[in-house]
Amino acid sequence: MTAAEDRKTADFWFDPVCPWAWMTSRWLIEVQQLRPVDVRWHVMSLSVLNEHKDIPQSYRELLAQAWAPVRVCIAAAEKHGDEVLGRLYTELGTRFHNQGLPRTRETIEAALVAAGLPAELADAADTDIHDEALRVSHAEGIGLVGEEVGTPVIAVEGADGDRVAFFGPVVTPTPRGEAAVRLWDGTLLVASTPGFYEIKRTRTVGPSFE
After folding, report:
1. What's the pLDDT tens digit per position in 145-204?
2. What is the distance between the alpha carbons of residues 204 and 198, in angstroms, rounded to a whole number?
3. Which residues contact 147 (CB under 8 A, 6 or more apart)?
4. Which pLDDT score is estimated for 3?
5. Per the omega criterion (within 30 degrees of 0), is the bond before 36 cis?
6. CA distance readout (Å), 143 to 58, 64, 137, 155
7. 128: alpha, beta or left, given left = phi > 0 and alpha = psi -120 to 50?
8. Closest-CA residue to 18 (of 44, 57, 37, 52)
9. Are residues 170 and 32 in contact, defined by beta-carbon separation less than 8 angstroms?
10. CA 82 to chain centre
11. pLDDT score of 209
């Protein structure tokens, strides 16, 4: 049994509509089963991140649909506690990505009910009443890594004991078992290196949902 003081808390900022964040989140859940890591979920918003940026119209149309899920997540956390975010994200992500369902109120309501939450929380999708809290949560995450990245953002105690934060990793399919922990250990190692910023290569495939 791992002593409580030996466990790490990994803070994970997500936007439910991002397929790459979804892949990373499923990897981190796998890691949580195999390493002394507890995941703490937070909301960030690609709509907020890109609202003043020059982006293609097709992407802007996608981001217009992305307000609803993050608003509902924030409303759920405010009314029922942050601990509901993990299971609500799982239900939303499974529907959006694995099942390919539309980002409609009906889909959001089904995710809420499956997560054990009131379906009427979907009312938050069409109002900006929770946007201030959304922006605060978003700013907390993006402030750790800078505006040039997106979701997910992870912050955790690094290999040297200091807290480190980073975007990613971007990976597909979701690593399982020993592959998952190798990636975790390696990510913490490079993220803990002073002055380290980036490893990157061109993506040649899209996210593979299992």
Report:
1. 999 999 999 999 988 889 999 999 999 999 999 999 999 999 999 999 999 999 999 999
2. 18
3. 49
4. 52
5. no
6. 27, 23, 10, 11
7. alpha
8. 44
9. no
10. 14
11. 87
Paired tokens of 51:
């609202």
pLDDT of 1: 45
- Residues of the chain with confidence (pLDDT) below 50: 1-2
Question: What are φ and ψ of residue 21, in 5° steps?
Answer: -60, -40
CA distances from residue 176 to 29, 32, 100, 151, 172 in whole angstroms, order as listed: 10, 11, 22, 21, 11
Sign of CA dihedral 78, 87, 61, 147: positive
Number of other residues whose CB lies within 10 A of the CB of residue 123: 15
For residue 96, give both structure tokens: 């959006």
Structure tokens at 94: 């499974």
Both tokens assigned to 185: 């250990």
- Two tokens at 210? 């299992």
Residues whose CB is less than 8 angstroms from the CB of residue 68 and which lie 6 or more positions away in sequence, other chains included: 103, 105, 108, 125, 126
C-beta pairs of 82-87 under 8 Å, 24+ apart in sequence: 82/40, 82/41, 82/42, 84/115, 84/116, 84/117, 85/41, 85/42, 85/43, 86/39, 86/41, 87/115, 87/116
Strands 163-167 and 8-14: unpaired
